[in-house]
Amino acid sequence: MKNAIALALFASTALVSAASAEGIKEFRIGILGGENAQDRMNSYQCLADYTTEALGVETKLFAPADYNGVIQGLLGGTIDMAWLGASSYAATFIQDPEAVEPVLIKVNVDGSIGYHSIGFARKDAAIASLDDMQGKVFGFGDPNSTSGYLIPSIEIPQYKEGITMDSGDYFGEVKFTGGHEQTIVAVNNGDIDGGVTWADGQGNWEDGYNSGALRKAVDAGLVDMNDLVQIWKSAVIPEGPIVLRKSLPADVKAKMTQLVDELHENDADCAYGVAAGETLGFQPVTHDTYVSIVEARKAKMKN
């Protein structure tokens, strides 16, 4: 009943209809990796329902196995909208500056629009910092992840002389797990010694912070944060943007931007799932927010 009321509210406030979404036969939303595919689909189903109501066309959800699947979908025109990480947006922009446009950014509970890459280990592993990770297995999520690889690969070597991202130099092995959830589970199970994931860094550690992959893992019952300890934290990273394909009809882009912008106000539960935790919703953003990330990504490509 609650979702039905919210759907009706969206339809009436946005004043949308099937006839107004001209030029498209369906709308396709890509979901970046971070947790298993079914959980991702479940978290976004409410948004898909609202999108179908708003545009009057079928909405399909796509949860590729890795980040590149969403990137290539946007570049190839088989995905119309996605919430990208800053590095994934940079990868998309570098390959085709005209493919997508950033429209909205997640807002934290305190009004900020940044988050952190968080290094963590099991509390019983006697690892308190990166100093204790020498010779051990360090897990990263996905090569196209901002917090799961790009930023750690730049900032962690600055932590201490001799640290590189090559297996056998400082860390015994540098391993890609495939995504944030996989990293969290691997550390929790003792399959790897430490790893990195993302969080807003606000609220309580015991809750997995207010939002992010740790919060989603706690909500899913995958981990007890009391079993884990933070061993490293990056500088603030700009939240990734919700992007739309530039070639979409203007009315479709306007309606989808409005729908997501008002999602927290109209259905807080749906917004919680889409935004990976407690937030204030979304606010407008432009490419300018990601210029530094684009340059960092280009620099990594040259190396």
TrEMBL record:
Coiled coil, from the record: none
Gene name for this UniProt entry: phnD_2
Database matches in NCBIfam families: 3A0109s03R, PhnD
Domain of life where this protein originates: Bacteria
Name assigned to this protein: Phosphate-import protein PhnD
Entry GO CC: ATP-binding cassette (ABC) transporter complex
Protein species of origin: Pelagimonas phthalicica
Species lineage: Bacteria, Pseudomonadati, Pseudomonadota, Alphaproteobacteria, Rhodobacterales
Keyword ATP-binding: no
UniProt-listed InterPro entries: PhnD, Phosphnate-bd
A Pfam family it matches: Phosphonate-bd
Signal sequence range: 1-21
Family the UniProt entry places it in: Belongs to the phosphate/phosphite/phosphonate binding protein family.
Keywords in alphabetical order: Signal
UniProt KW Signal keyword: yes
Biological-process GO terms, alphabetical: organic phosphonate transport; transmembrane transport
